[in-house]
Design a protein that fits this description.
The chain has 162 residues and is mostly beta strands. It contains 2 helices and 16 strands. A hairpin with a 2-residue loop joins strand 11 and strand 12.
């Protein structure tokens, strides 16, 4: 049977038994998930519609669509790679995104980027890799991104218009 014809059962985020924490780790009432294949599968299945972020799972007679809660954001940069003098960001969903210098911001000492209106948080690992392109000006309290022969201030979130 073609899975697109399965009836869909919606699980609202209030009833989800798992969530994504502020560091991009999946959790349930027993704690942090530890099985790498399950973690990777959950991340790869993240989708978004007009009601929010969700995961789907096919069962024999229906497709389950689970909207899940998250503590900060559902999207994370987990890895940073250099390719042909470009920086490519690897998201938790598996998507590769070129570094958008003008879409970065800092909020509560964390680096974020805007991706089509969604907030994406840089993991600690990704931030360490990207740090070679960054410089902090203590005197002015600003962080600069030096990338592709240009320097740009990374604005604080409160500096940006919402």
């Amino acid at each position: 049977m073609n899975n697109s014809f399965l009836p869909v059962r919606i699980v609202p985020k209030e009833d989800a038994v798992f969530w994504l924490d502020k560091d991009g780790c999946w959790r349930n009432r027993h704690g942090k998930f530890h099985h790498p294949k399950i973690i990777a599968r959950f991340h790869a299945c993240i989708r978004k519609d007009e009601h929010g972020f969700y995961l789907t799972q096919d069962h024999p007679d229906f497709r389950e669509k689970v909207y899940f809660p998250y503590e900060d954001t559902a999207l994370f940069v987990f890895d940073v790679q250099e390719k042909d003098q470009n920086v490519i960001l690897k998201l938790n969903t598996g998507q590769d995104v070129p570094l958008p210098p003008d879409k970065l911001s800092i909020h509560n000492d964390h680096l974020y980027m805007d991706l089509d209106g969604d907030r994406v948080k840089f993991s600690e690992r990704a931030l360490v890799t990207l740090s070679k392109y960054m410089q902090f000006d203590e005197e002015r309290g600003r962080t600069w991104l030096n990338y592709q022969e240009r320097s740009r201030i990374i604005p604080d979130y409160q500096d940006q218009r919402c």
